[in-house]
Amino acid sequence: MSHSGKQTPLSQDDYWQVSHAAGRVTSYACSVSARHIRDGMLRLQFNREVAYYMRGIVRDVADGRKTSAEGLIAIQKEQQSLLSQSRTIALQSLGIVAGGFQIAGGAAMCVGSGGLACTLGVITVAHGANNIYENGRNLVMRTSNTEGPVRKIYKSAAKVAGGSESIGNIAYNSADISLSLYGLYRKIPSPDSWRLFRYIDKDLIRTYKTTRPPVIAIDTGADAVSSYGIYDELNKDRSQGE
Question: Can you give the pTM of this predicted structure?
């Protein structure tokens, strides 16, 4: 309906555009569900709900309850929602996998150093377990605000020091990145070296040189997420201070 109360005739081209856009979103929803929903019945239900919603928009446009422009806007909003959900699930899944690597890396720090780097190893394991808990619970509960015990310690320490919760989150994410970089660049015995007691410098090699590329890619991705978290918290802390 137009603002004057008269129904504007729907052209064939406008109808095709709306139908085509709805079809693209329905197809994209199928791709998203195949990637993220393992249960067949739930996946089918999700696809059906999106398809029904898209058909409803097309029907509203065809019957004059929505203009073609309004229909396209509604379709675009649904597409953005699907993109956002898919991105969130992907990042949370990345956090779980990266957390597992942190636990394994922290244990290796302790064992590989003969106990000398156990403090950093324990902290790395704690961060890894915390990241698995937060991202895993967020995935199950379909939320994004889970706080694990380690993060709460950082936030409590920030408050005691006179800072804000944002500072605690920044400290947590900064520690995550620092531990990751240390894990990748610390020196370990070269695979082709052998010493009974003590290694010399030429027997050592940086960890990243013996790490598989997919592991480095996941680690780098997790660091990028943590970096964005720092940026977001800095903006939040700045806006609260104004």
Answer: 0.75
pLDDT for residue 18: 93
How far is residue 190's CA from residue 169's CA, in Å, rounded to a whole number?
36
Which H/E stretch holds residue 189?
strand 187-189
Contacts of 138 (CB under 8 A, 6+ apart): 92, 144, 145, 146
d(CA 72, CA 21): 7
Residue matched to tokens 């950082």: 154
The structure tokens 């015990």 sit at 149
Please choose, from the candidates 175, 191, 166, the residue with its C-alpha nearest in 3D space to the C-alpha of residue 131: 175
> Measured between alpha carbons, how far is 132 from 101 in angstroms, rounded to an integer?
10
pLDDT of 208 higher than 60: yes
Helix (H, G, I), strand (E, B) or coil at 204: strand
Structure tokens at 126: 């704690």
Q: pLDDT tens for residues 128-149?
A: 999 999 999 998 888 888 999 9
Rounded CA-CA distance 71/51 in Å is: 14
